[in-house]
Amino acid sequence: MPEEIDNVGEVTLSRYEQIVAELRDVVEQQTRGQFTIGDRALEIEPMRETSGGASADPEWSVTATLTRLAEDIGLKFSTVKSARWTSSRWPVDRRRKGVSHTVHRVLAHIEIEEERFDAILAPPEGKVRWTVDDARRRVGNRVETPVTPEEKVTAIHTLAQDDQVAAAVTSDFLKRPEVTAKVTQVDKARVVEEFTRDEQVASTAATNLLRRPDVAFKAMSDDHARFQVNHAQNERSRQAREHFEDTSPVAPAVRSIDRTVEFLDLVTACHAFVAAAGRTVPGLRDRQLSDVERTIVHENVARVRAVLDWIEQAVDTGRVDMDDELAAMLRGE
Q1: Pick from 52, 77, 83, 47: nearest CA to 65
Q2: Is the pTM of this model over 0.85?
Q3: Per 3-state DSSP, what percentage of the chain is helix, strand, and coil (rounded to 5)?
Q4: Phi, psi of 162 (to 5 degrees)
Q5: Can you tell me the distance from the alpha carbon of 196 to that of 189, in angstroms, rounded to the nearest whole number?
Q6: Helices 251-280 and 291-317: crossing angle, nearest 10°?
Q7: Residue 282 carries which DSSP code?
Q8: What are 18-49's pLDDT values in tens digits?
Q9: Residue 277 CB coordination number (10 Å)
Q10: Element (H, E) at 250
Q11: Which residues contact 99 (CB under 8 A, 6 or more apart)?
Q12: Are 84 and 42 in contact (CB under 8 A)?
């Protein structure tokens, strides 16, 4: 007799089919037993409409009665309660032979009766009988053995509800280049933003990223980012200067030198302007400027005159503040 090749586990395929047939009988017996428990619990305590009112005698409320029944037959209260509810959802003539009590219980969550009764008669396409996972998919519950990407994602979310577990899983996933490569640019940006909410982490990340020439170039193409970087540089210089002036013993001498340098810079600027004007103005002899050119020159002369007034104010009073009009003029507005 030829030896069978296909095995299931440690048994031959034919023996496996014998075991399946035997266990289906056992499951059918268990299903009848579960429905019997539910039917008797339902007989003792019929389902009631939710009224919101309290029982007149709490000792003999539904919970108390079912608890007593569960203890008297050696089962858990939750088992008896679930069996009672399942029986209430499946009248005897609507229960299907060959479908486990567990599947009946899962499909019992379908609210509309006719839809529920029709569903148990129609297993998923391509299958001859209901499985528990198929029933859970039908009512939108989480399956035990996820198959589709959506089911796997749901399973991961469920297992990672603890923050510590989620953090560990995320760290592991981000170490896999093939995973990060499939994340969209938008989602990657969101992840970076979430990870850099802490200022110390953000500064470290920004420093490392700006060391990459291509990243720095693209970042500085953004006007707001460039302004913030320039502002940060100026602020850092100001803080460094203040710290030096507050703590360094040579600060008074340096301040004296700074004032001398500022004086020289100012005199140099005035001299450069006078020299440049002396070279340029004579070139206008016998030349007729257009209306537009004259307007531009007059605007610049007004700007220069305002700056000269500002210089005289600073020299005479030591005040270097300027009004809004001058500030706007210096900005070219």
Answers
A1: 77
A2: no
A3: 70, 0, 30
A4: -70, 130
A5: 11
A6: 150
A7: G
A8: 999 999 999 999 999 999 999 999 999 998 86
A9: 11
A10: none
A11: 31, 120, 129, 130
A12: yes
